[in-house]
Amino acid sequence: MTALRRRGFAASAALALGLAASTFSFEAQATTYKWITFKPQGAGDAQAISTQWFVDQFKERTGGKHEIEVFWGGSVAKTREIPDSLAAGVGDFGDIITPYFPDKFPLNNAVGFFIPQPKSTIEIAELMEKWHAKYPQFSQELESQNLKAIGFRPLESYGMLCTSPVRSAADLKGKRIRTYGFAYPALVEALGATPVSVATSEAYEALERNILDCTPIGPALAHGWKYDEVAKYYIEIPLGASFGHLIAMNLDSYKAMDAETKAVVDQLGHDYAREYADELDSDDAKVRAGWPEKGVEVIAFPREELIAVIDDERIQNVRKEWISRADALGVPSDEIISELKF
Known about the structure:
Blueprint: H1 3-29, E1 31-36, H2 46-61, E2 66-71, H3 82-87, E3 93-97, H4 121-134, H5 136-143, E4 147-153, E5 157-162, E6 176-179, H6 183-190, E7 194-197, H7 203-208, E8 214-217, H8 219-224, E9 233-241, E10 245-250, H9 251-256, H10 259-294, E11 297-300, H11 303-307, H12 313-328, H13 333-339
Parallel strand pairs: 1-2, 1-3, 6-7, 9-11
Antiparallel strand pairs: 3-10, 4-10, 5-8, 5-9
């Protein structure tokens, strides 16, 4: 073999080794992330559909380099276990029902203290994203627990599903209404009704047996839980979109991503809100279209009669509780409040 041919062979071999090393490096860096959720894969609702959309988009936008495996239906962590499991690294992504953890996430539960409020699902998602960008305390609250919010999933705009017609505030007097959290019991009492604590899974039977007269809920959820089989009056009382879920990541997992993958996650979190809200709107429209056949009547409620009770001392005391926490953390609570006013 001539010297020239030997040099050519050596160069070709080096190139081949370099390509092999490059391929190995690509494969070695490829990652399958774990998403833990309470939602069953077959639920077929906006959450399940949009979660799969996120997973598919993540793989596509990373050029197939990375992917996410979803562990559905609480198979890895149940609903109330997810924040701690995610923080400990049991999963990389996860769904956190924020109102279940008011002491862990007081700032990120802001919307839950200001019911009723006039914002829609997409508007609340945009507000949460804005607050996280503008006020570092929102992110710091999560970072202190090794978590990072990458997306926001408010629930649908709520009305009230009842077993008898409600056409005004006077019709709510004495009604037994399902409540949870802080704001709903205060609002129900301000309206002259009786708050009753009933788990979501038990509300169907409670409505059927007249233990409950009404429950705050949106059309898609009312149909999903089959409440509309036993309660046939949906009251368009403007309670606003409930918050809702954080799509969170284990902070260490996020920090370990390269800049390109972080950028994909950040953009996906932003895009997700619109995708989810569109799915929710579609669900809402389908449910409403099918309600006449199911015998469900939709009743308008005088908006001004709801707004009139917001100044009630019980409602204001709940709001003051959040305000005091926000002020103590240096968050300008007046700016937040101004965004949630009718």
